Amino acid sequence: MYSIVLVAVLGGLLFGYDTAVISGAEEGLQAFFLGADGFNYSEMLHGFTSSSALIGCIIGSALSGLCAVRLGRKRSLILAGVLFFLSALGSFYPEFLFFEKGVPTMGLLIAFNCYRVLGGIGVGLASAICPMYIGEVAPANIRGKLVSWNQFAIIFGQLVVYFVNFVILGDHLQPVVEKTAEGLMQVLPGAEWMTANGWRYMFVSEAVPAGLFALLICFVPETPRYLAMTGKDDKALYVLSRINGEKEAAMILKDIKATAAEKSEPLLTYGGLVIFIGIMLSVFQQAVGINAVLYYAPRIFASVGMGNPMVQTVLMGVVNIAFTLLAVFTVEKWGRKPLLIWGSLGMAVGALAFAMCQVVTLPPFMSVVCIMIYSACFMFSWGPICWVLIAEIFPNTIRGAAVAIAVAFQWIFNFIVSSTFVPMYNMSLGSMGDKFGHMFAYLLYGVICLVAAWFVWKLVPETKGKTLEDMTKLWKTK
Q1: What is the pTM of this model?
Q2: Contact 151, 324 (CB under 8 A)
Q3: How many CB atoms are closer than 10 A to CB 331?
Q4: Which residues pair with 177 in a beta bridge?
Q5: Coil, strand or helix: which one is 194?
Q6: Who has the most CB within 10 Å: 32, 73, 427, 455?
Q7: Are the C-beta atoms of 350 and 438 separated by less than 8 Å?
Q8: Contact in structure between 129 and 241 (CB atoms under 8 Å)
Q9: Could you tell me which residues come within 8 angstroms of residue 123 by beta carbon, excluding any fewer than 6 positions away?
Q10: SS3 string of 73-98?
Q11: Could you please report the per-residue DSSP string of 436-466?
């Protein structure tokens, strides 16, 4: 069981790796394309290039339900691994076949973004199917714990790529980009290696874990739920026996067959409430604003007056890992709902306190503490528990399509939060200046956290200790 999950959570690690690799490479990438003669590589174009993988994430998550049903959970993960691998190679050498190496052109920029979108499709598939796979394989009494490891792998993947980017950069300089008097962008000399090759090595480093994932996933079994729903009862029983023992396996298979008589029930067979709850879990996971911290932590810490914001960013990464582990080891003891509610309230305290720090003159470290509280509370609640619930809350016969819809909304709101944060955070008003934007952004996120706590309290059912087949009975009674 643990060997299977260890392989599956590599998909989560690649999820974190792929979404964070751009953080180290984007300055070198910008410097490279600023050298183009045929077009002006504007800040808007660079912003799109830096976030183009998110477009693939939306596409991949939307297709994940179809892939999960038509290809199965295992083959869908193999496909995701292949897409990760091809994206890493293509982002490293986008000139392949059609362009001259080292010559930035609009065609080359389009090719590069296509490779990044390809990797994003892999992320979208993995983000939906990895927790689904683990949830369908794991026994009910440890399912939440094992699915939570997927979130740990995502955060760990982000930390790994930060370290890999740091090692690749070594003694070389990051490019410095500034605006000239005419409003154009230019690169100051001194970082030629990073401009020419450094960003390429950062992207291709992903090929190592991607190739390993695509290879190892070939050796894990298909999930017993999918096997049973496709009429392969003998194979399903074999997998269940290896995990649960022969006696219990027969009982579990009987329950699965009782709730999976029809492979492709309509999405709304169990009513709209379960779909609504799944979607809103995804929306709240992003709308609470966590990616504003994860993507822009150095900017936030610098804005409150910290001397070296990277120190606080690294410290926050360590705190995130520690509190994700808290969720892993308590989700089966405390339950899903309590962790989500207390996490939401803790995030609200951190966010609203940060907003208050912008109104009242306090030492900069107080703002840092507030952000740490906000981030830590997300890591033991909405970070892992949202994935646990999405993996287990839907009945067997609609899980593939329902998870796809929920995760697609997650990536859509990820894009919305990520693209609106900087202009909102930098808003100025009267005597407060930029501090108005600092206050407004986290006042808004704090209020959303309170609404999220109310939503969980009122509508989300507790699923601790329940089998996936129990979900069918639960929603039939609603």
Answers
A1: 0.76
A2: yes
A3: 25
A4: 187
A5: helix
A6: 73
A7: no
A8: no
A9: 14, 15, 18, 19, 53, 56, 57, 60, 80, 84
A10: HHHHHHHHHHHHHHHHHHHHCCCCCC
A11: HHHHHHHHHHHHHHHHHHHHHHHHPPP-TT-
Tell me if 402 sits within 8 A of 275, measured CB to CB.
Answer: yes
Nearest of 109, 133, 28, 122 to residue 83 by alpha carbon:
122
Q: Tokens 């999950």 identify what position?
A: 5
Tokens at residue 143, please?
Answer: 């399912």
Per-residue pLDDT tens listing for the chain (478 residues)? 778 878 878 888 888 888 778 777 777 888 888 877 877 887 678 777 877 888 898 899 888 878 888 888 899 999 999 999 999 999 999 988 888 888 888 899 999 999 999 999 998 888 888 888 888 887 777 777 777 787 788 888 878 887 788 788 777 776 766 665 555 666 666 678 888 888 899 899 999 989 998 898 888 888 888 888 888 888 888 888 887 787 788 887 877 777 655 455 677 777 788 889 999 999 999 999 887 777 667 667 777 776 666 677 778 878 888 898 888 788 878 888 999 999 999 999 999 998 888 888 778 788 888 889 999 999 989 988 888 888 788 887 777 778 888 888 888 888 788 777 767 777 777 666 667 777 888 899 999 999 999 999 999 888 877 776 677 777 766 6
| Separation of alpha carbons 214 and 416, rounded Å | 31
